[in-house]
Specification:
This protein is an alpha+beta fold. The chain folds into 2 domains: 116 residues, Roll (PH-domain like); 49 residues. A 6-stranded antiparallel beta sheet has the order 1-2-3-4-5-6. The protein has a 3-stranded antiparallel beta sheet with strand order 7-8-9.
Length: 187
């Protein structure tokens, strides 16, 4: 873990030492790990979109004799525009809901493209407990789960849901906390 080589796994949902900057990053702060939901957890909305696409095709095949060319073109265009919007919004939600672990703090960004963005953060010195939970066949098979970070006092607790390799994330956080408690630096 002490080597500073950048690596990305599971379609960029688990990135060690990313060469990235984020809003509010301190001058000497270095991202250690960036995590987002495992891509396998995104299959539900992908298959829903595929089903909607098949419904559009079925509608066009069934009603093509009742509608003229322009009406049918409008239905296809409108349906595909809705479908592409559905895919785009779900991709944005997946891509921008991210957890960032730096050498100074832990940041949880929850992005909702239409309504708001919520950013929770805590410094590593205030972390009291880190727990990973994995349950079910798919979670075990694809190695994804949830990580819960409990902080001291009235600080907000941080949660990363459906992230890949939750045990490794807990290990990274615990090593960072240990280095801070020992007065060391993670760089």
């Amino acid at each position: 873990m002490d080597n500073l080589k950048e690596s990305h796994r599971t379609f960029h949902s688990f990135c060690f030492y990313p060469q990235a900057r984020f809003d509010g990053q301190h001058d000497k702060e270095k991202p250690i790990l960036v995590v987002r939901s495992h891509p396998i957890t995104q299959l539900s909305w992908f298959f829903n979109g595929l089903l909607i696409f098949l419904l559009i095709i079925g509608f066009c095949l069934f009603f093509h004799s009742y509608l003229n060319f322009f009406e049918l073109s409008f239905v296809i265009f409108f349906g595909l525009a809705l479908l592409l919007s559905y895919f785009w919004l779900n991709f944005l939600i997946w891509y921008y809901n991210v957890g960032i672990i730096t050498d100074e703090r832990i940041i949880d960004i929850d992005f909702h493209p239409i309504s708001y963005k919520e950013v929770s953060m805590t410094v590593l010195a205030k972390v009291e407990d880190v727990t990973s939970k994995t349950g079910g066949f798919l979670s075990s098979f694809f190695d994804f789960g949830n990580v819960f970070i409990q902080t001291a006092g009235t600080e907000i607790n941080i949660e990363f849901f459906n992230i890949p390799y939750p045990a490794e994330v807990v290990q990274v956080i615990n090593q960072l906390i240990e280095k801070i408690k020992n007065g060391g630096n993670y760089h």
